[in-house]
Write a structure and sequence with these properties.
By secondary structure, this protein is of the alpha+beta class. It has four helices and five strands.
């Protein structure tokens, strides 16, 4: 018989922990806040996987991959540097890219001159690979596969985190509103009962 009472005891403990028990000291705002908290938790549990999936698909669709670049008519050519790029003072700056004047051929069009990015220390006459758009102007290079995967993974992780922050902010705002209502209710109750408690005997 004692074992049969355990589920009921656990249910009562859970209701007390959630703030949904029949405690006469609890006001309607307390129960409303408890229900809102439960709804927001359920919203996160349901929305987090959906946000992760949707953010991953969106990130993969907007990432500038090589396939999307080719579909957009972009292509890669060799640009010849017209000026040298100053070298850095250490080995780390050698990996930096600087803008330098260069010329490059445009398929089916004249040779063009403009600015491209080249590694520090590059000499005039060196060729670097650049991506051109349909009009023959330099454009951003597509991302490699590992960078695209990292971008998709980062967006898939950030989406549930952002959802959690939004729900926490909503809970904080709702709690602030309910606290003001509780304070107003307590002041109203004290205005009715307080004079009786503080009345001095004659």
């Amino acid at each position: 018989m004692r074992g049969m009472r355990v589920p009921g005891h656990r249910t009562a403990s859970l209701a007390r922990w959630l703030g949904l028990d029949r405690n006469p000291l609890r006001r309607g705002t307390d129960r409303a806040e408890a229900w809102i908290r439960i709804i927001l938790v359920l919203a996160f549990l349901i929305g987090a996987p959906l946000a992760c999936w949707g953010a991953g698909r969106w990130a993969g669709s907007v990432a500038p991959t090589a396939a999307r670049a080719q579909h957009a008519g972009e292509h890669r050519v060799l640009a010849t540097l017209l000026r040298s790029v100053p070298s850095g003072s250490d080995s780390l700056t050698e990996l930096n890219l600087s803008w330098v004047r260069a010329r490059w051929p445009v398929p089916g069009g004249p040779v063009r001159t403009g600015y491209v990015q080249a590694p520090a220390g590059s000499r005039a006459g060196r060729t670097v690979q650049v991506w051109l758009d349909r009009s023959g102007r330099p454009t951003a290079a597509p991302w490699p596969g590992n960078q695209v995967q990292g971008w998709v993974l980062m967006m898939a992780i950030l989406a549930p985190a952002m959802l959690a922050l939004v729900l926490l902010a909503a809970m904080g705002l709702i709690g602030h509103i309910l606290d003001r209502r509780r304070l107003a209710s307590w002041q109203q109750a004290w205005a009715a009962v307080g004079p009786q408690w503080t009345r001095r005997p004659r």
